[in-house]
Amino acid sequence: MLQKIVLVFALASFAGFAADSENSFSTPAQIKLAPGLYKLKLIGSMAMFTNTASNKSFSAVTHTEKSGQKAVYTAVLGSTADGLQRVDSIVLAGTDLRLTFK
């Protein structure tokens, strides 16, 4: 399943980031995303995930770190706990940025 999430974010990195309508839910708690293809947009310290099928958007606070070298691929690093998959960080292709989620 984590491989599917990696593929989804890799594909989403090639997609455009515009969304005509959006619903934003920002809380310090965790957000749960339904399986699917998401577009990712970084707005300051907020990562905006937009579901391409429903156009609903969800935001999460992120910390941006510079890695020193540009990534060749977009990669999602995560873990599984209590049967749920958690995204710990996202490395963005073509940039030296790593988005981390706490």
Can you give a write-up of this model?
The protein has 102 residues and is mostly beta strands. The chain has one domain (2-26, 38-100). The protein has 1 helix and 7 strands, in the order H-E-E-E-E-E-E-E. The chain has one helix at residues 2-13, and strands at 38-43, 46-51, 57-61, 63-66, 75-81, 84-91, 97-100. The protein is globular, with a radius of gyration of 13 Å. It starts with a helix and ends with a strand.
The main sheet comes to: 4 strands, antiparallel
Alpha plus pi helix count: 1
What kind of assembly state do the chains in view correspond to? single chain
Strand order of the main beta sheet, please?
A: 4-7-6-5
User: Structural class given helices, strands, pairing?
Assistant: mainly beta
Shape: globular
How many domains? 1
Rg, rounded, reads 13 Å
Number of strands: 7
**Which percent range fits the helix content?**
10-25%
Q: Mean pLDDT, rounded to whole units?
A: 76
Low-pLDDT ranges = 6-29
CA-to-CA gap between the ends? 21 Å
How much of the polypeptide forms β-strand, as a percent range?
35-45%
Order of helices and strands: HEEEEEEE
